[in-house]
Amino acid sequence: MSEEKRNQIWALVITGILILASLVYYKVNVYYLYLVAYIWFGFVYGMMLQNGRFCFASASRDLFAAGVPRMAVGILVALVFFSIVQAILSATRMSTFHPAPFGPHTLISGVIFGLGMVLAGGCASGTLYKVGEGNGTSLLVAVAGLSIGQAIFVDLGGIFNELLPNSWIASSALKELPAPKGVPPDKITSWFDVYLTGYVWNLPAIQLSETKTISDIFPGAWKYFIGNSLINVVIPAMLLIVIIYLAVSRKVFMKKMKDKGRRTLRDEIAGIWSMITASKRTTIMGVLIGITAGLHILVMKGMQLKFGVDNFGKLLTKMGHTGDVSVDGTVFDPGYWYITSQEAQFGAWIMEKFGWNMHDNVFFGVNNGLPEPWRNPALWMSIGIILGAMVMARLNNEFKFKMPKGELWVWGLLGGILMGMGSRPSLGCNIGAFFIRIAGGDPSGWLYGLGMVTGAFLGVKFFNWWTERKMAKEIAAFDVRL
Amino acid sequence: MMKIPLVVIAIVIVGILGFFVVYSQTTIPKEAAGPEAAAPAYGAGVATESIDYGTIIVIIILCAAVLLSGPLRSALGKKKP
Q: What residues 264-303 of chain A have any CB closer than 8 A to a CB of chain B?
């Protein structure tokens, strides 16, 4: 049997298994359709990410190291489309989006994440689709770095608690009340618990449509389209596209033009359009990802209204799985595309099997719960991404299992841990803290993006230095042998 | 050859996502709902403020017009080197 035929059969088998799993969930309880929706949206994200090679780490690396803007432009196109769909959903009260606390922690977190993703060779979403392609280094990043690394990161206490500012400790102590009025004192044990309750929870969350200025000037549905979409996304995205064009693509485009006369505005617009459409595959996937992410929100909000809940934890409780949920009766259920929190839950689940108590903190014990992996909706979304990417990679004959070799072990592990450390303090990664937030009208997403690009720039510079140093050593050794 | 399984999978996905869109936006008759029968009526808890459908429709038409405008695309396309 040819390789191509074998890949096609694999693709159909994987899809068939997911259909079967969905039917089994439905048969067990209709409430599980909520979880099944996450699986299939994850599956579609995975297919599109793999087909469009959508990766924020590649976007930074290509732009800074090779001057190729393809992926960065694709991401901006996706943002524009997603923001328009998000605005429609907000205007029709069908959005599950909620803005995040705004503060300098977002920027710092972004720098750490950006550095980590370049070292790891993929962002949070990129890592998952590369696992689906059979990349062993990405598997190492996802399991050891993102999952276990994050779980340990949020549960560290002891000496780390000694380093916390007194103002955070004092503010955190004020929130110590029995659930659901406050946080049970026995759950504030790690440095991250104090950071969340004593610092992050005190910060304001901003969504442009809900600010007084925007809602006063633009009444009705206009505030979503003008505030969240036009001001927070379309204008900044266009400005960035123009900056990228001027810095990277303009020179090449103008050289190629047959007419060597004076350049007009029309020529410049044609140049920008040419840059956007240079890679149709990425741009089309950007548009589709934006629309699918919006559709995902519509479905999850509809499911919540249908079942009369605002979190899957309530359904798990109704089904009797009370051990899965937090003291507030919730589990991690973002209601849209999100990555990293569910990986942290998976890491915590593994650590608990080794006797580490992961329920005694705010992140798992109060906010996100710790469901069994097969009852974890967001984790199923990540599995869906991996399987969707695997199907697409099989169909494109691009699937190949590759074990990490040599220094890739170090980069994978270090990059994964940094990505985990860069996503938890900001409560999200390149998807949850950047992509979703910006499109939803939350300016903190841009702050995270600025940090991420800075971190990625530093990572690219570091890798360039490392590679040159390594090559110089190899050349010197070669000369000595001669 | 590659296209046949891709088309099959694409049809399956469109079908499944389509099912979820329809399923999530409609009510199930209570007698057939099983565990859902105890759930509040569809839409319970949604803000009562009226939805500005007029503006939403105008904006969607404007966006579609910009995206689909042939003259814009062809005008820009002609300038490609």
A: 266-267, 269-270, 273-274, 295, 298-303
